[in-house]
Amino acid sequence: MRDKINIGYGQGFWGDSILGPVRLVKEGPLNYLALDYLAEVTMSIMQKLKGRNPAAGYATDFVQMLDRTLPDIHEKGIKVIANAGGVNSDACLAAVLDLARKKGIKGLKVGVIDGDDILTRIPELAASGHEMKNMDDGRPLSDIQNKLLSANAYIGAFAVADCLAAGAQIVIAGRVTDPALVGGPMIHEFGWSPEDYDKLAASTVAGHIAECGAQCTGGNYTNWRDVNDFVKIGYPVIEARADGQFVVTKHDGTGGLLTRNTVVSQLLYEMGDPERYLGPDCAADFTSAKVEEVGPNRVQVSGVKGGAPTETYKISLSYQNGYKAVGQLTVAGPDALEKAKLCADIVWGRLALDGCEFAEDEKMVEYVGSGVTHAGILGTDNPPEVVLRIGVKSMDKAKVTRFGSEIVPLVTSGPPGVTGFAGGRPKATDIVGYWPALLDKTQVQTQVRVEES
């Protein structure tokens, strides 16, 4: 067992730059590479993809990244932990093993964590008395049970550690928590127990700081002018120690900015109760963390306190919640904003003339360029051009489709200066509803298995 490890966090979401993990692997020392591809809506997208193609439903970007890095990862002995399995870890496993064999890499051990996907078990769980009420508004699951698209439990870091203990060099997970991708290696390397709450809380804080990738190393930072070389921004590396202390750093020679302020800014991201940040492995007290700069691009975090976790897992369910369509036009020239507002009125009027009306809460109109991002805070001063974004939502797909045909006619039958229409008529697409709930931990069992190339 080592007393210190380096964990790079190279992916903040599905769609993050491939240069994050590629450069982490190539530009400096690394023991582990953590990669987060999942968000709540991502699971439903993957479920729909799998429904159309049994070989889909995972983060294909993960395999593309490995195509560029796998020889280095294997040669350097870097272990990879990714939630790229989505809702089809088996297909992801097969793709990774196939890639390894094509590259002539023998003996690569790839592990899979199963158990988070509970979609097929929902009827059984509901019938046996597990309510899974909506945590936001208390609605019963029966309101949307027949519309479910995905259902996953947020499992914790010990499942990741189990997979590493089974010998996996690459760990493919589904819906584990974001901090678990960092906590798993710490538990595995340092031998922490489920009762080591302070240390587990430290790993939660470390994972929370790193989970958005470069957002803690200068990305999305308020004082953006202080950030050096956005092009080569360095992704975070957690130097973790067995006692729970860790340093947030980045590879030498990379761009970005890593200071106490950039770390604390990320620490406050998506924060509920800072004294009781709940996860499947512990409850972490973020206010107990001592955050201090200990060198250039080196921020140490220590003193984190934690407590026992809850007896429930948070589960994330998604469901079909109607349809939407959004289109846009550019309106230029004198009185652009006034003309854009007239365009919106024309669309609603023509739809009503044809018997297709939407309630106010089913309509969306934005005038981009007129201060819409800061509506009610900043005034407008007659901008020379405005982008009209106009959209609708409804449970009636035919109505939404009808809306899409009334935007482009404005180019020739509306006020002057209307342009910028491209991409065809906006089509009706599914609205994915989000349903957060709780489920007794006894109802979720994880398993790990490892295969070799």
Structure in words:
- With about 450 residues, this protein is α+β, with helices and mostly antiparallel strands.
- It has helices at about 20-25, 40-50, 60-75, 90-100, 120-125, 155-165, 180-190, 195-210, 260-265, 335-355, 395-405, 410-415, and strands at about 5-10, 30-35, 80, 110-115, 150-155, 170, 235-240, 245-250, 275-280, 285, 290-295, 300, 305, 310-330, 365-370, 385-395, 420, 430-440, 445-450.
- It has a ten-stranded mixed β-sheet with strand order 11-12-8-7-1-2-3-6-4-19, with helices on both faces. Strands 5, 14, 15, 16, 17 and 18 form a six-stranded antiparallel β-sheet that branches. It has a three-stranded antiparallel β-sheet with strand order 9-10-13, covered by helices on one side.
- The longest helix is centred in the last third of the chain and has 18 residues, at about 335-355.
- It is globular, with a radius of gyration of 25 Å.
- It starts with a strand and ends with a strand.
- The mean pLDDT is about 95.
Task: Provide the fold topology.
Blueprint: E1 4-11, H1 19-27, E2 32-35, H2 40-52, H3 60-76, E3 79-82, H4 89-102, E4 109-114, H5 122-127, E5 148-153, H6 157-165, E6 170-172, H7 180-190, H8 197-210, E7 237-241, E8 246-249, H9 260-267, E9 277-278, E10 283-285, E11 290-295, E12 298-302, E13 305-307, E14 312-332, H10 336-353, E15 363-368, E16 385-394, H11 397-403, H12 410-413, E17 418-419, E18 429-440, E19 447-452
